[in-house]
Amino acid sequence: MSALLPHRRAGSGPVLVLVHGYLGGSAQWEAEIDLYSANYDVIAPDLPGFGAAADRPGCDRIEGFAQAVMDLLNQLGVDRFTLLGHSMGGMIVQEMAANHADRVERLVLYGTGPLGAMPDRFEPLDVSRQRLRDDGVPDTARRIGATWFLNGEEAPGFPAIRDIGAQASVQAALAALDAMASWDGRPALDRLTMPTLVLWGDSDRSYRWQQVESLWRNLTAGELAVIPGAAHAAHLEKPEIFHVILNGFLAECADRPAAC
């Protein structure tokens, strides 16, 4: 059996899995782990090649990331869980939910969409790939991380995102761009039948409204929540609103389990 994927875990109760995205890491969920561990068994993995798992080979397919997270949950003996995925992590949890719908109680798709190529992204993936080769990971993490916030590098949450992103290996950062470019989750959307929250900051420069709307409208049981005045890292930019929305979705299912 392979060694456990590095992860953070706290609390007890129903399992809530937090999956970070490109140039992210489990450390970005510090506030959410502190908050939700009061009522949930919170598990936040570091994806292969990122964060505390930077010494592991990165995946060049979203399916590979999804399998890595599933392997961790299996090794931890977790059977049923709620998934929250941010950005590329939203692609990963869509893949997990489509293939393991019987194990996913609820799904939160945050700052993400159904197509990895990300039409209308702040820059094409090919440009990110070339600039990563030219500039290296730390400068790329700084540059891309700044686009996650309305106030760029002046945002209070920016230093943490910059530093977390800089931990990634070059191999993993390049491979993940290939993973996103080749992934299309649209054919599997009809398999996402569990209650699903689509959560989006209205100034997100990675996923624009057209992609978010396409995701929301093609889900069987999808709800949409838009956070005003927030970009790609709404959980750091508008944490109070982010948590109120997420609390409402989680409580909805806790109060009406038969509906979830």
UniProtKB/TrEMBL annotation:
<dbReference type="InterPro" id="IPR029058">
    <property type="entry name" value="AB_hydrolase_fold"/>
</dbReference>
<dbReference type="GO" id="GO:0016020">
    <property type="term" value="C:membrane"/>
</dbReference>
<keyword id="KW-0378">Hydrolase</keyword>
<protein>
    <submittedName>
        <fullName>Beta-ketoadipate enol-lactone hydrolase</fullName>
        <ecNumber>3.1.1.24</ecNumber>
    </submittedName>
</protein>
<dbReference type="InterPro" id="IPR050266">
    <property type="entry name" value="AB_hydrolase_sf"/>
</dbReference>
<dbReference type="InterPro" id="IPR000073">
    <property type="entry name" value="AB_hydrolase_1"/>
</dbReference>
<dbReference type="Pfam" id="PF00561">
    <property type="entry name" value="Abhydrolase_1"/>
</dbReference>
<feature type="domain" description="AB hydrolase-1">
    <location>
        <begin position="14"/>
        <end position="239"/>
    </location>
</feature>
<dbReference type="GO" id="GO:0047570">
    <property type="term" value="F:3-oxoadipate enol-lactonase activity"/>
</dbReference>
